[in-house]
Design a protein that fits this description.
The complex is a heterodimer. In chain A, helix 1 (14-22) links the parallel strand 1 and strand 2. Chain A is built from six helices and 13 strands. Chain A is globular and about 45 Å long. Chain A is 23% helix and 35% strand. Chain A has one domain: Rossmann fold. In chain A, strands 1, 2, 3, 4, 5, 6, 7, 10, 11, 12 and 13 form an eleven-stranded mixed beta sheet that branches. Chain A has helices at 14-22, 33-37, 50-59, 62-65, 78-82, 180-191, and strands at 3-6, 27-30, 41-44, 73-76, 84-87, 92-93, 98-104, 113-119, 134-140, 142-145, 150-156, 158-166, 169-172. In chain B, strands 1-3-4-5-6-9-10-11 form an eight-stranded parallel beta barrel, surrounded by seven helices. In chain B, helix 1 (32-42) runs parallel beside helix 2. Chain B has one domain: TIM Barrel. Chain B starts with a strand and ends in a 7-residue tail after the last helix. Chain B is globular, with a radius of gyration of 17 Å. By secondary structure, chain B is of the alpha/beta class. The chains are: A alpha/beta, B alpha/beta. The interface between A and B is medium-sized, with 36 and 34 residues.
Chain lengths: 194, 251
């Protein structure tokens, strides 16, 4: 299996590479469109600020490559947010794969949300052998509201999308690469999607 | 529901754990990676590595250690100790650290917080604050709590948040090493005034101290070293105790 991690300069991707290594898979880090197009699985990571990350994607032309992919794609954290229609962070227009707008938590809660929260309402084979209320690790200030593409829900201030899916595109707000055994299961499920 | 975090802290010198650790099942008690894996398996929510090396090779040694930890450990970890520049942070994050903590360097050059946040994002910048009460006022201290400053704790915490830090790790020098419990009154004030997570540090001696720091101290996470290293309590037992006291934890 050819597994690529899209490397566009937005954050720490070593952890994702190492997480797949622990599962016995060697991921290729690349920003090359041909490499990404020919992969069996694509990981779209992201940490940091939305508008600057989106600008990096545009500069490399990957903003056109990613939405056209046909194989399973997994967006992680900011990667998932950039797959949405827009983000309130830096008034960023996203890739428009998921039809929802990312917004910021209010001052009613501490921002960023940092730590382990639960996922519920699991609706995809991405969560095979993952239990309702299992814990996953998150660090984020912005979130995708519940929408028709929601496949997992977490609660912080309100119920929001912890994961989204549309066709071959998957996105998770949490960090499966840092979510202990539950996260490993989810990454393995992603590789085994049929 | 977001859970309260338990964070063992490992002191590192020249790539090895410093304090003696009482783990009979460890092949190499000085290997931070092996100890980190054990803590992760026992249910630690995060780890902190505090580097106290003073050698010229320390940067490279620490970067190598960070990479080895990132390869083996499946929970988040923070690296602190002697970090004073954007380049320092870049190297540690590139090698797989999830967060870095800065302390004295932020006090000496507060603008460093803004620079790090602009380049790497709030989510990975922890500001550690060591403070001690002098004539009834909490004063920030430098160099592992040895050097007092005129800076007032709550004002500094506000500035740290305004400059974009994602978290505050607060250590009370008055409580650190006493095993008499955390500085809960001060922690509660910090946690109420600030809108970013507060990690409590200094004073853990028994399980009730953790219950108290989450309830009375309103802490978002609690950090400790010796109570875990010397097996005075198991993380699993601690989390059960917290759960029995109505505190949300990951079990």
């Amino acid at each position: 299996m050819k597994l690529v991690i899209v490397n566009y300069g937005a954050g720490n991707i070593q952890s994702i590479k190492f997480a797949f290594q622990r599962l016995g898979y060697e991921a290729v880090l690349t920003d090359d469109a041909e490499e990404i197009n020919t992969a069996d699985r694509v990981i779209f990571p992201g940490v940091g600020e939305a508008s600057s990350a989106m600008n990096k994607l545009k500069a490399s032309g990957l903003d056109k490559v990613i939405p056209a992919l046909r194989q399973p794609v997994l967006g992680i954290c900011l990667g998932m947010q950039l797959m949405c229609h827009s983000s309130e962070e830096g008034n960023t227009l996203g890739l428009g794969i998921f039809d929802t707008d990312v917004v910021r938590f209010t001052k009613n809660v501490k921002v960023p949300q940092i730590g382990w929260n639960q996922i519920t309402n699991l609706k995809s084979s991405l969560f095979r052998d993952v239990a309702e209320k299992d814990h996953i690790y998150l660090v984020h200030s912005y979130y995708a509201p519940i929408c028709k593409e929601t496949i997992a829900v977490s609660e912080y201030e309100l119920a929001y999308s912890s994961a989204l899916q549309k066709g071959n595109f998957y996105g998770v707000q949490f960090h499966p690469e840092k979510s202990s055994k539950v996260g490993e299961r989810i990454l393995k499920n992603f590789l085994e999607l049929s | 529901m977001l859970t309260k975090r338990i964070i063992p802290c490992l002191d590192i010198k020249d790539g090895r754990t410093v304090k003696g650790v009482n783990f009979v099942d460890l092949r190499d008690a000085g290997d931070p990676v092996e100890l980190a894996k054990i803590y992760a398996d026992e249910g630690a929510d995060e780890l902190v590595f505090l580097d106290i090396s003073a050698t010229e090779e320390r940067r490279k040694t620490l970067a190598d250690l960070v990479k080895r930890v990132a390869e083996k450990v499946n929970i988040p970890f923070t690296v602190g100790g002697g970090i004073s520049s954007v380049e320092d942070v870049d190297v540690l994050l590139q090698n797989g650290a999830d967060k870095v903590s800065i302390n004295s360097s932020a006090v000496k050059n507060p603008e460093l917080i803004n620079e790090l946040v602009a380049k790497f994002g709030s989510q990975c910048i922890v500001v550690a604050i060591d403070a001690k009460q002098i004539n009834g006022e909490w004063r920030v201290h430098l160099v592992g709590g040895k050097v007092p400053t005129e800076i007032e704790l709550f004002q500094w915490a506000q500035e740290v948040e305004e400059r974009g830090a994602g978290e505050i790790l607060f250590t009370s020098m008055d409580h650190d090493g006493t095993k008499n419990g955390f500085a809960n009154e001060t922690l509660a004030k910090l946690s109420t005034e600030r809108n970013i997570p507060i990690i409590a540090s200094g004073g853990a001696g028994n399980m009730q101290h953790f219950v108290d720091t989450f309830i009375e101290g309103k802490a978002d996470a609690a950090l400790a070293a010796s109570v875990f290293h010397f097996k005075e309590m198991e993380i699993k037992d601690l989390k059960k105790k917290l759960q029995n006291n109505g505190i949300p934890v990951r079990l």
